[in-house]
């Protein structure tokens, strides 16, 4: 990193002769609040990670959470299990009103360990999400293969209405985490409710979710857990999230919920969904490729630049407040790129996808606001953010084939120091030169790269 104070750079001397394109950053004009970026270690991936030797385990944790050497993630997404030893309520109490026999192993498939490690790096956003209710609470008697929570709109069971019992179980899960010193900050009760599959899955449309949300909200309140923010509905993609959102909004659910949550499997977030709720991309990944670490080759599904583009579109065009990739660290899963960091048990390998997320996550910290920009640069999307510590961050995502010189002119902010970092095929969040001149900074943004600029104000 270079801290250049009012320096004059002779572009010719470093071989650049491009025209500058100016973008104005209106620091006083705030848009959505940013909660952060992160991953999950659901379905036993936390326990596998925990079981690594101390060397690779620490290296993996640093790649995820360290703000100097890794992505600096600030959100984790844990799975609330729904069957057998995976669940805090493995057996039916017999009826919805009978006393439930909860079981707590203080481990939760390694997620207690993972949550504590994340907290050690300062993570405060812990999103706990149920993929399904236990089978005995559902119309199909199975935690897998779809089915509905007994008692939601249009769905009845001979065993009764299990909505309150499911709400009680979710509150108990949050309390067990509290006992371990972990504060669940966000709670969801659905995962891909518009999809039926052979592992934990439960159906729900927006109206059915709305027939449960007030019960869950009231149950959190009566358990002194009203600080836990409610999320819904982790739909398969942006299209179904939009449909679900309109049902939730017309049922008055904006007053109970904090987050509208989406996955990207049948549609990436690319346009605003009109709601006063924050929107989070809570799960996104490449489900097609073998493990790859590539930044850019041909725009393939596993490449870092591909994900840099998706994140930029989500934050800048779809008003996202958070972006969560599916899994973080996996061990010996060379057949997949649905995660960011691979360990073979000895070594640990980051991917271009990790560095794409790092270009946002390391610099734009929870509580930051996106701020308005005007002007455009060919091939480059420009996002600007103001952190709670007063620093201003610009993320320049160049998906085009030509290098650009970008001048960011700041309105309402007088920087006295600037740093810039580059990720492309030969750099991973590497410090590069940036020129600060009055209230403007100029930086070179190579073809197919991301450059993040951070400015601090005169004090
Ligand atoms: C949690 O369980 C996993 C197996 O699922 C085990 O490897 C790990 O040591 C356990 N962790 C704790 C803290 O008990
Ligand atoms: C992050 O990594 C740096 C460099 O290895 C190290 O000094 C620092 O302690 C790490 N931070 C945390 C929170 O572990
Ligand atoms: C409710 O929670 C707050 C902090 O979250 C705690 O200080 C208080 O003691 C709790 N009250 C009860 C009745 O558990
Ligand atoms: C963006 O989301 C916020 C909530 O985080 C909302 O208040 C704001 O109106 C949204 N912006 C647009 C353009 O819809």
TrEMBL record:
Residues 24-229 form the Endo-beta-1,6-galactanase-like domain. The keyword Protein biosynthesis does not apply. GO terms for molecular function: glucosylceramidase activity. GO terms for cellular component: membrane. Residues 1-19 form the signal peptide. One of its GO terms (biological process) is xylan catabolic process. Residues 367-453 form the Glycosyl hydrolase family 30 beta sandwich domain. Keywords: Carbohydrate metabolism, Glycosidase, Hydrolase, Polysaccharide degradation, Signal, Xylan degradation. The keyword Hydrolase applies. It comes from the Eukaryota. Belongs to the glycosyl hydrolase 30 family. PANTHER family: GLUCOSYLCERAMIDASE, LYSOSOMAL ACID GLUCOSYLCERAMIDASE. This is Xylanase. The lineage of its organism: Eukaryota, Fungi, Dikarya, Ascomycota, Pezizomycotina.
């Amino acid at each position: 990193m270079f801290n250049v104070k009012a320096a004059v750079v002779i572009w010719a001397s470093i071989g650049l002769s491009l025209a500058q394109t100016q973008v104005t950053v209106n620091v006083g004009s705030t848009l959505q609040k940013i909660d952060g970026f992160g991953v999950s270690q659901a379905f036993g991936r936390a326990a596998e990670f925990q079981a690594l030797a101390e060397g690779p385990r620490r290296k993996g944790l640093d790649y995820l959470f360290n703000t100097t050497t890794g992505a600096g993630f600030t959100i984790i997404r844990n799975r609330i299990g729904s069957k057998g030893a995976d669940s805090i309520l493995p057996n039916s109490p017999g009826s919805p009103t009978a006393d439930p026999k909860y079981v707590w192993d203080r481990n939760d498939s390694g997620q207690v360990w993972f949550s504590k490690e994340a907290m050690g790096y300062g993570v405060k956003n812990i999103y706990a999400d149920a993929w399904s209710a236990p089978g005995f609470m559902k119309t199909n008697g199975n935690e897998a293969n779809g089915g509905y929570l007994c008692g939601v709109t249009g769905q009845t069971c001979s065993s009764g209405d299990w909505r309150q019992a499911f709400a009680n179980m979710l509150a108990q899960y949050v309390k067990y985490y509290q006992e371990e010193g972990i504060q669940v900050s966000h709670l969801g009760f659905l995962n891909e409710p518009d999809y039926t599959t052979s592992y934990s899955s439960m159906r729900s449309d927006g109206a059915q979710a709305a027939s449960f949300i007030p019960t869950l909200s009231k149950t959190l309140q009566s358990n002194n857990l009203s600080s836990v923010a409610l999320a819904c509905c982790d739909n398969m993609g942006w299209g179904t999230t939009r449909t679900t959102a309109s049902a939730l909004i017309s049922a008055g659910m904006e007053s109970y919920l904090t987050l509208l949550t989406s996955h990207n499997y049948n549609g990436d977030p690319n346009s605003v969904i009109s709601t006063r709720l924050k929107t989070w991309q809570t799960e996104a990944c490449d489900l097609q490729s073998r493990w790859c670490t590539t930044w850019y080759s041909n725009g393939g599904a596993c490449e870092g630049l591909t994900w840099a583009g998706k994140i930029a579109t989500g934050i800048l065009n779809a008003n996202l407040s958070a972006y969560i990739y599916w899994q973080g660290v996996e061990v010996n899963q060379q057949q997949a790129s649905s995660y960011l960091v691979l360990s073979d048990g000895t070594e640990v390998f980051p991917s271009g996808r990790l560095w794409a997320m790092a270009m946002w996550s390391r610099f734009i910290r929870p509580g930051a606001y996106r701020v308005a920009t005007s002007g455009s640069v060919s091939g480059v999307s420009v996002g600007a953010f103001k952190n709670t510590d007063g620093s201003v961050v610009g993320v320049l995502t160049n998906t085009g084939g030509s290098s650009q010189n970008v001048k960011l002119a700041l309105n309402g902010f007088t920087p006295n120091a600037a740093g810039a970092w580059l990720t492309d095929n030969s750099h991973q969040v590497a410090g590069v030169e940036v020129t600060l001149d009055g209230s403007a900074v100029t930086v070179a943004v190579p073809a197919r790269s991301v450059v993040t600029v951070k400015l601090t104000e005169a004090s």
